[in-house]
Amino acid sequence: MTDPEQIPGEADAPLPRILGNTGSLVASGQESSGALWRLAEPGRQLDANLVRIPPQGAVDAHAEPDLDVLLLVVDGDGVLGSAAGPCPLEPGSLVWLPHGSVRSVRAGESGLSYVTVHRRRPGMRIQSRPGV
Predict the structure, then answer these.
(1) What is the spatial distance between Cα 101 and Cα 87, in angstroms, rounded to a whole number?
(2) Domains of the chain
(3) Which of 1, 11, 34, 61 could form a disulfide with 104 if both were Cys (CB 3.0 to 4.6 A apart)?
């Protein structure tokens, strides 16, 4: 392993850091649903969320027209629905959801927790109209 003091880099470069532990977040959010955690660091190029679906809950069929999404199951089980048919999900399942693909997610009896990662959407900016 390389000694961290020997890794070259700019003195003012951003530093890698541990943001949390998915196991702890899932354990503390067992009674919750929706986003248990969101990546919120300033200047980031990615968005990431830890999502919890309660037992037998679902995310209805939808398509993301612009962004590919990576989904990693961290707890529970469920089913990914797509035009290719249902695919079982379990801890460790790593799924690529290409932009434009229609998909749904249904949690099993113990619920389902997963991390999603995708390119960050550009923020909306207020600009003056041309010629004004």
Answers:
(1) 14
(2) 35-119 (2.60.120.10)
(3) 61
Q: What is the 3-state secondary structure (H, E, C) of the chain?
A: CCCHHHCCCCCCCCCCCCCCCHHHHHHHCCCCCEEEEECCCCCCCEEEEEEEECCCCEEEEEECCCCCEEEEEEEEEEEEEECCCCEEECCCCEEEECCCCEEEEEEEEEEEEEEEEEECCCCCCCCCCCCC
Can you tell me the mean pLDDT for 67-77?
A: 96
Task: Please list, in sequence order, all residues whose beta carbon lies within 8 angstroms of the beta carbon of residue 81, skipping any fewer than 6 positions away.
Answer: 61, 103, 104, 105, 106
Lowest model confidence (mean pLDDT) among 53-57, 90-94, 95-99, 126-130? 126-130
Identity (one letter) of the amino acid at 109? E
